[in-house]
Amino acid sequence: MKVGIIGGTGNMGRGLTIRLALRHDILVGSRSLVKAGTIAKNLKNVARGFYLSDLEGSIAGVLNADAIEGSEVVIVCLPAKYSLLTLEGLKEYLTPEKVVVSTVVPMTRKEKLFYWTPLEEGEDPGFGERSASESIQEIVAPSPVVTAFQTVPAAYLNNIDAVLNVDVLIAGDDDLALAKVSKLVRDIPNLRPLRVGPLVNSKWVESITPLLLNAAVLNGLHDPTIRVIPWMPSEE
User: Fold this and answer.
1) Residue 34 and which of 45, 188, 199, 201 are 20 to 30 A apart at CA?
2) What is the pLDDT of residues 58-84, one digit of tens each?
3) Domains assigned to the chain
């Protein structure tokens, strides 16, 4: 699969690139072609050294627009405050058959704790506003949006030696898009995709990230994440 990563030079973008390159062709997108090329070259060297003959994919650095044009799945790894404006400027490169994956988490920090906050300013600045994924869907339509990877710390992805054993909660309205993103998730060893409903549920997925950060701050945890464990009744 050809995957373009918008904002691919950031921590999340680099982590997803190094993991997905095992089986897919990755276009690392950036506003700067020089920066994209430099980071892509470094990640390519790491991937070749770690995966050796198992490496099936490739990594190249391009401008954000070219990352969209050359891919079938577009992963948005932009900082929340820049995501809508950037996508407004890039939406002309999208086509209906491309799937857009939002990793965006809109949140603010007050003193030492984190809070989910909407990207859009409205009469109600609280939890009544829609998710970042829903805002992105309005911009990129008719390309379908899928929410994914918010619960996977970038530090985990970038530590290529780490065994992840993490669940990825995914939300979306298009079954074909969900199936394609689920396959991408499964192609990263030990990640498990779990569908959690339509795109409107993205708010609950996005809000898990500030909760995990607060758990880290208040309990001295290092990069906590989640895994959904089914109840296993004991046999007597």
Assistant:
1) 188
2) 999 999 999 999 999 999 999 998 999
3) 2-219 (3.40.50.720)
